[in-house]
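Give me the fold.
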Amino acid sequence: MKTPLALFAAAAAAFVVSPAAAKVVGRLHVNGPVTNATAKIEVTGGPIIYVDPAVLPATAPADADFILITHNHGDHQELASINRIRKPGTVIYSSPAGVPALTTALAAAGVTINAVTPGQRFTIGGVEVETVPMYNLVRPNPGHPRVMNFVGYVINVGGVRVYASGDTERIPEMRTFSVDVALLPLGQRFTMIQVQDAVEAALDLRARVAIPYHYGRGEGTIEDGQLFASTLANRMTTMMNTGADGFPLEISETVAFAEHPASTTVAPGANATLSVQATGSGPLRYQWRRNGVAIVGATAASLPITAAAAVNAGDYTVIVSDANGPLTSRMARVAVEAPRPGTLINMSVRAAARAGGTPLIVGAVTVGGPKQLLIRGAGPALAAFGVAGTMPDPRLELHATVNGADTIVASNDNWATAAGGIAALRAAFTATGAFDFANTTSLDAALLATIDGPRTIHVVDTAGRPGVALIEVYDAQPGAGAVRLANFSARNFVGTGEDALIAGFVVSGNVPKRLLIRGVGPRLAALGVTGALADPRVELFLADGTRSTLFAANDNWAEGGAAPVRAAFAAVAAFDLPDATSRDAALVVTAPAGAYTAQVTGVGGGTGEALVEIYELP
């Protein structure tokens, strides 16, 4: 007779079909009914990572390179299990409440213990980890209140994002990020209110694989696990546990997208087609998904939408698999509305200036004629949004080339003293949707200026002090037809964590717009910039209310083929990247209307000077 664990393994096998030659980037071990909420990840060629070790047998190997702990309750932070799996050099990360007990028990043994809170990113053994909130929302006397800063972990294993949620309810933040593999609790006493909440959470997260844990030991039942798996079986890969050999985390290194599906706006009743062009090793298989759920029968390279209706609106991706595993396309948004073409209506960059009076420099270009812009350099006002270390007294300068020489054509130190007065500026703040400068005595800077063609904007502290500043450029005359903002750029030092180079922009209307986005580092060195970032990565995030979704990313600009990217450079007169093997980054995307951030970081935690650029493509 099979044991319950053997039955779980059989259930897992029924849901998993792996390509014969899939590239396995790691193996995931989860035995929810047996080891509570413990997860073990064996990264191929990398570290062994445990999350919430508890109820581990005495025979568990001492093989943990890293231990991640969501919170300090004994069924997640169990000292006996930690001592079984730790070895010399093991490093532990825990939410703050767990650190004192871990320090008391393990510091003398030389174990490194780090406190983490929601919203952090860090790298362990070459593996990128993000911390996300973990708390009870509905329960009147929660065992996991939000104020405790407990965390869940999103672990990026070779491109496969694994979410270990800990003891959480279905919370709104689950709609703000997406994962490939979701580990969700079924406890129903301190975690999910009911099994259906865990099912909905898997859909919120747009997971491809869902595995329940934290059930069958005092709260939640084996039947709950069966209900979870059977409810999701037709929507994604699911299983009750990963079995003795673990679940293979797979990607394809041989699938390549020549063309991703493109976002589109289609009038009600009209037809549209989404399509993908990909190559790979052997025959390709396709599975289209809408809002994270597989579309039955949508298994071809194109997906027709006939007589579009509201039900067809949503975010589409296609999973393309070859003999070496799956790879997921970028998201394509389908809007079913009467088309309303738009433009780039505002752009901003937040960055940290260093001491010594080196300015933050931003470029903006209008085409088609003169356009009035609202330009701001915010420093002190950012403190109200929780930004630490802001620039104390920013000065704003607008530069243009006049008779061949760089010339300051407008400037402002304290915004309430700007030409036109407080009332005119506040009216512009309201009209453009810019946040208000509530204090008329603040040292933030702002001005209204009409520009025609390229300009550069400098922001520097009046006393040369370092600090974080936000430079904003708003279209004060939206809807002016052919006269529009067409290009935005910023150059600054790229650090780690909060010191990434971040540029924001908005596409108005509802019709997607083709854009070129670049993160330039090595090419700057060839142009005479010292200390250039050696290997930049550019990531484009789309904001939808509380959700911020990774829309597209690139590490090395020519990795998908240099010719179409170079054609985009030429179309907007951007300087060339002559070396196709350079580590500069670039994206050509069809971006649906909405708010975006483009982030430039250094691969492997590298730092240096970099340039981020956003161009409107024809």
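The first strand starts at residue 23 and ends at 30.
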